[in-house]
Amino acid sequence: MSSPPSKRPARTHTRVRRDLELEAGTSAHYEDPAYYTKTYRSRLDDVRFYADYASERGGPVLEYGCGNGRITLPIARLGLDVTGVDLSSEMLADLRARLREEPADVRARVRTKRGDMRTVRLDRRFPLVFCPFNAFLHLYTRVDVERFLARVREHLAPRGELVFDVSIPEPEELARDPGRAYATPRFNYPTPDGKGMPVRYTERFDYDKLRQILFVAMEFSPVAGGDAWMTPLAHRQFYPRELEALLHYNGFEILDAWGDFDRSPPTRDSITLVLRARARRR
């Protein structure tokens, strides 16, 4: 007597739950390249650091989170090839516009790829991989970090190096009252006509201590009246020893740890951590 045919288990589809707050906090700050450029135009220490290090080490360079070329272009102007990866189509479009104003030899040295740094595959290897200006802080979970570091390993040439910087968590900032708006001086928000629009600017900070994510709400109110708007930003907070463990258990060794872009050692007063790492030999 034959046994009844076994029933094949029903196929189930696991739907990944989208976190719209995190998605907005990852992308919104980069949707207006003109504002981004104005905001960070005086931030030059990291630009000099990455350009100098690339010049010393030699290219080509892979840059994750290249944005609109704040670091990409100075490296290319030194005669080094740079491949920039970024998720923001707006920032990459602005980078391409900036490239059109560069000499032909600089334009030829820059390649761009829109995509997620956890998944993008370029089928080539680089002696230097950069992830500057807190781009690493958009890796919100352990799995995000693991996927990113796996892509880095795939793209590193033998003895190649990963160099990146992050803000060190500041307890006072994480403890701020999320209900309080912290005011800063008024400024001219860039507009397409080039005249700018005077705005009042405030920030709110809301720290999720379970996920170690700091949510920043950047609030803009036109001085002359009109609709106000808010731009969210979400940054994962990584502590130095946590980063050391994540790198170690994903097959990397830290070669240098600096407390600023002048390559000075970290101290208890450092607000930035710059790490230089290499994949361990298997």
TrEMBL record:
A Pfam family that the UniProt record links to this protein: Methyltransf_25
Any one GO molecular function term: methyltransferase activity
InterPro entries the record matches: Methyltransf_25, SAM-dependent_MTases_sf
Superkingdom, taxonomy of origin: Bacteria
Region (Disordered): 1-23
Keywords of the record: Methyltransferase, S-adenosyl-L-methionine, Transferase
Xref: Gene3D superfamilies: Vaccinia Virus protein VP39 (3.40.50.150)
One GO process term, biological-process aspect: methylation
Domain annotation Methyltransferase: ranges: 61-160
PANTHER family per record: METHYLTRANSFERASE (PTHR43464), UBIQUINONE BIOSYNTHESIS O-METHYLTRANSFERASE, MITOCHONDRIAL (PTHR43464:SF19)
Protein name: Class I SAM-dependent methyltransferase
Species of the source: Polyangium fumosum
Upper classification of the organism: Bacteria, Pseudomonadati, Myxococcota, Polyangia, Polyangiales
